Structure prediction request, 154 residues.
Amino acid sequence: MIGFGGLSSLPVLRGQLLAAGLQADALLLQSLAVSNITPGPNGLYVVVVGYFVGGPAGAAIATVAILLPPLLVLPLERVRSRLIHLRRFRATMVALSLSVVALLALSSGSLVVHASTDTVGMLMAPVGVVLLLLRVPPLVGVLVALIAGALMGP
Prediction:
């Protein structure tokens, strides 16, 4: 139900999966892989997690959970537009945004550690972060990964 858009709900979902006693990192990595090869928005990995955990019924429940937050945001946007002129409200919004970024960074780090099988894999994550920060086109990142893979051999 906590939909931030894209992968921003990843830390919350990871925590819930861990609390349920599931292997969250493996489950999320598989779900991200499946959702990234399918057309649609980034948040579809939640539907895949629902399917892996609860079959078709789990996928249906996850779909409803993804659709509800945007509908709940509509009345909240009306409240936000009335309060945005208040300095405290704006400061709270900035603090919430920074909290989401921090949680996403922590969860992403955990996923990198779980997904990396060797030193080169661990080095590719910081390289990817640098490429993102420098706003390098995604195709360049793919080419860097292909070159690294070719140099490593089979």
